[in-house]
Structures are given as structure tokens and as C-alpha cells.
Amino acid sequence: MMTDEQTISSGWEVSGSGYHTPALLEESINGLNIRCDGIYVDATFGGGGHSREILKSLTSGRLIALDQDADALANRPDDRRLTVEQGNFRFLRNYLAHCGIRKVDGILADLGVSSHHFDSAERGFTFRQDAPLDMRMNTGMRVTAAEIINSYPENSLCMIFGQYGEVSNARRLAERIVAVRRVQPIERSGQLLETMKTCIPRGMENKYAAKVFQALRIAVNRELDNLKALLLQSVELLPAKGRLVIITYHSLEDRLVKNFLKNGLLEGEAEKDIYGQSKTPFRQVNTKIIRPSEHEMKHNSRVRSAKLRIGERV
After folding, report:
1. Is residue 8 part of a domain?
2. 245 touches 256 (CB < 8 A)
3. Is the domain of 143 the same as that of 288?
4. For residue 106, which of 35, 168, 169, 162 has the smallest C-alpha distance?
5. Which residues contact 175 (CB under 8 A, 6 or more apart)?
6. Of 146, 256, 266, 269, which residue is least crowded by CB atoms under 10 Å?
């Protein structure tokens, strides 16, 4: 599994700020199949790269963009067709209702972490710089990575590292953290790296640390729960022919999206009618994963694990 510390996702390279570069930009915008008078959602505004591209195709249409990080709001362009809200896309239905919208023609979500977050050491997303263990996308949230490391029981830590990071010796790592924190709280990324040294296989230092930090970030921000909520709401919010466009970066996300587009369920198989046809709310526009081109990866290596899936409401 490629981790987000090794390959970071999309956004917009804001002039002078270096906030982020959008991944699979042309492919994802084409996937929306934009109508000039349609209503669209950019569920992960970030640097605004995808939003700006969507706006190029709209005349009388409208775009609603969300991002839970207040820093991203500085990237919004001055455009009457665009509404940008600070918020989590798990509450998309509520934000749309606030705007007087019940249905939209397309929803795009890029699930990767912005380069801005990894490059801002004080946000605590990276193990490459010593910083407080924070990792909150929304700094108004209560639970930080340090809170998880220092207060969660051993079994919970084992689950987080094993399930969200696919760390092979998750139990050993959890035991080690619990033993160390009894003596002194683990509050900084440097302390966590020092704590897990004895658990890391030789030659796997960076890959192992990336998995652990990814697992903590997913837990802090409840990323998989948020994705599940977005997928379920998309069935209600999209009319027939409406498009759902999702860019994922690790296997846990991609597995959820793949199964939902195929079966209309977060897990398991779809029911079939008397003719053996699956009853699913989406048609898979691309049955084969769309990945970045060699040209894109050459110019932006951080997108190399990106996977694009597109569904059309039936």
C-alpha cells in the first residue's frame, strides 16, 4: 500500500504560495461530464485547482466547494458562481440544504492530503520534521494524534496501526507505545519515531513511519467514516446521469469506493433481481482504474498512487 507521506494528492498550485498541484485534473473534470448550467460540488476544495477547472465549463451553472481546513479558504477565487464553505463533506447534504439545493449534477472528491499540510511542520502531518503530534485537518477538532497515542488503550492502538496503516507488527508497536508513555508522554513526532525504532524492520524506516503516521491521521480525522457518509449521501443527491468522481490514494479508500460503485453498498454484494441483474444505484463509467500518466508523474511525483473512479447515477 502506497502511503500519503510517500505520495501526496491533489489541489491547486496557487501562484506564490505553492499550496498544491491538482492530480488527474483533466481526467477528473472530464469524468464529471459538466453541463454549462449544472450544479456541481467540489467536496475537497484544497488549493482550488479542481474548482477553477470546473468553473471554466460553467456559464449559468453553480459550484459549491467544501474544505474543513480554514487555511484552504484563502485560495478561493472571486467568482459569483462559486460558494466556498468551511466544513466536512460528511455533512454535504446539510450544506447544500443551506444553499437551497436538493440535487446536484456532479460531485468530485480528491481524498489525498494537501502538500500544504505536509509542508507545514507545525500541523504535525509529517515524520520528516520534529513537530507536535497534531494531524487535524480541522484545527477546531478536539482529538489530536498526541491524544490518541497517549490515551487510547493498547487494543485500540493495535487496531489503528493494523487496519489503517497495515503495519505488520501492529501489536508489538502498540505495546511499545504504551510502555513508553507510562514513563513520559509522547507529544512530538520525534519522540514517536524514537519510540518505534525497535519495531522497525531494517531498511524499512521511512516506509514504516509513513504507515504509522498515515494510520494516525486517518484515525484523527475519521477519514473512512467521512468517506462512507459521502458515498451514501451521493445516492440521494445525484439525479439520473449525475456523476460521482472520486480520487483515492490508498487501498482502504479505494476498496470502499470500488465496492460502492459496483454494488451500491459499503461492503458485501448487491441484491440481484429475478434476471440475475444487480440492483445498484450507479453505473461504473470506468471499470478499469484511471491512473496518472507518465507525464504527470514526471512533473508531480506525489500523485503516483492516485486512483480515479467514476460512477454515473442510474
Report:
1. no
2. no
3. no
4. 35
5. 154
6. 269
Residue carrying C-alpha cell 447534504: 93
| Residue 229 domain-assigned (yes or no) | yes
Angle at 19 between CA 14 and CA 25, to 5 degrees: 70
- The model's pTM is 0.89
DSSP string, 266-285: SSSPPPB-TTS-B--SEEES
Instruction: Please give the Cα distance from 78 to 58 (Å, whole number).
Output: 15
Cα(131)–Cα(124) distance, integer angstroms: 5
Element (H, E) at 67: strand 62-67
User: Cα(first)–Cα(last) distance of the chain, in Å?
Assistant: 32
- Kind of pairing between the strands at 307-313 and 282-284: antiparallel
CATH number for the domain harbouring residue 184: 1.10.150.170
pLDDT in tens, the chain (314 residues): 555 554 333 332 333 345 667 899 999 999 999 999 999 999 999 999 999 999 999 999 999 999 999 888 888 989 999 999 999 999 999 999 999 999 999 999 999 876 555 556 667 678 888 999 999 999 999 999 999 999 999 999 999 999 999 999 999 999 999 999 999 999 999 999 999 999 999 999 999 999 999 999 999 999 999 999 999 999 999 999 999 999 999 999 999 999 999 999 998 887 777 776 778 999 999 989 999 999 999 988 889 999 999 999 99
